[in-house]
Amino acid sequence: MAGSLIERFDVSQAAVERILGDALAGADDGELFIEYREQESLVFDNGRLKAGNFSTDSGFGLRAVAGEAVGYAHSGEMSQAALARAADAVSAVRTGRSGVLAPAPAGTNHRLYGDENPIPSPSFEEKVRLLQSIDSYLRGADEAVRQVTVSIAAQWQVAEILRADGRLVRDVRPLMRLNVSVVAGEGDRQETGTHGIGGRRGFGEFMAEANWRTVADEALRQAKVNLRAVPAPAGAFDIVLGAGWPGVMLHEAVGHGLEGDFNRKKTSAFAGLMNQQVAARGVTVVDDGTISERRGSLSVDDEGTPTNRTVLIEDGKLVGYMQDRQNARLMGMAPTGNGRRESYAHVPMPRMTNTMMLAGDKTPEEIIASVKDGLYAVSFGGGQVDITSGKFVFACTEAYRIRNGIVSEPVKGAMLIGNGPDAMHRVSMIGNDLALDTGIGTCGKAGQGVPVGVGQPHLRMDAITVGGTQT
Question: Theoretical Cys-Cys bridge with 378: which of 80, 242, 423, 436, CB 3.0 to 4.6 Å?
């Protein structure tokens, strides 16, 4: 996109800066967040194009921060009048000023993504042909296939953050995703398999036949595995978690508890435990928003702070939190580039980017062979976590029984139940095969959704409660 977004206002940049400066006078911190976004999605279901959407949106959000108070106003109208109304609305927080001015974020020496908008290419017709090809391929691949749903989604976001000192930061953020869902059946029984890939890149990867066939084959494989699955057992079992996407359990059970706002308010199960042993030795967890093309990666966060590789847990000890600027200042810590928002209509808060556990020294084969009677969880679906207590429940979408160190029959209906801090102490073996997910994750918090990444190597966790359906 040529030119700055700030040029879309009906007044000069100097006038915008004056209004912003007046709005933030006497506040600790704040910014003007300006956004332009294009979004496209297509859904192919039951052999036909079922839904299609293309939209554009733009607007700004103005925030003033004083102590714990936040004033926020947003508008889709890029005008001096709208900006002045927003400035008047946020000025109410000045009375809460803490008296400590937040220093401006440092500049960034890297830019992950270029200005090219990938959405217009390939053409609409080419995208529809891609969906048709995947549908036809799967229906011809196996007579057990009863339904195929394929979707693609693309987003191109340009964000600019203007601070009261006149510093303007710009970030361009492409985002793509391909998802395939297959329903396979035998007699009266039907099961589903799903798989997807995505990331901050163009459509080229999805259009390559070898790549989309891999996605389609994996979805079909999962559906057929589930057709053979038997009811999961219930009880306490040693668990092996697969590499990659199973890191979503780490994201939910541990990651949210290490966000700054929950710890400042002491509502996290990890609050007050800095420099204490919160996981087994060997467990190191990081949040890294600097990895190019990953779903959670950004050049700068939504406050203008460069993203970072933040070590959260090191050799089992809690050493860091993910911070936005407000919570970092109130806790006497440095911001980590984790201030994120869903759009200009939302206030930023501490959020994860790409959160992962680092590799250990065991092979996956060693880990599986060490389990006499347990469960091998390869993939997860939905889950629930209570941040304050750390309690979690996660549903396995692909899991197997382990018998005498050998992966045995697939099981369905398995639920992993536990407590995040306690579960981290139950990690007894860490694999050498760290993998990131395939680029499909979206994280929800306080009604806002943002794209994220997760990852981990194979793990063994001892005596985890499994909720099953076997009678």
Answer: 242
